[in-house]
């Protein structure tokens, strides 16, 4: 997959085509194996957590030429990946709340 194709996916708002591509899936697996399926941020802090995400250090929207570069990938757990992207966890209210106490 070339840079122009990746850029086209991003500009059309269909970046999931990239993330479902054979090239990405293979490279993602290589990155996970390289990092022993461990979150690298947790590992740097002396903790262990399984890596569920493969993060682009330099974002695909900014650097589509590095989208398939193994040196631009970092394996992270979901919590650390959300932290890197400054996403906050949404606190949900329970679906059912019964005021009555037995």
Automatic annotation (TrEMBL):
Keywords: Endonuclease, Hydrolase, Nuclease, Plasmid. Residues 26-82 form the HNH nuclease domain. InterPro entries: HNH, HNH_nuc. It holds the Pfam family HNH. It comes from the Bacteria. GO terms for molecular function: endonuclease activity; hydrolase activity. Belongs to the HNH nuclease family. This is Putative HNH nuclease YajD. The lineage of its organism: Bacteria, Bacillati, Bacillota, Bacilli, Bacillales.
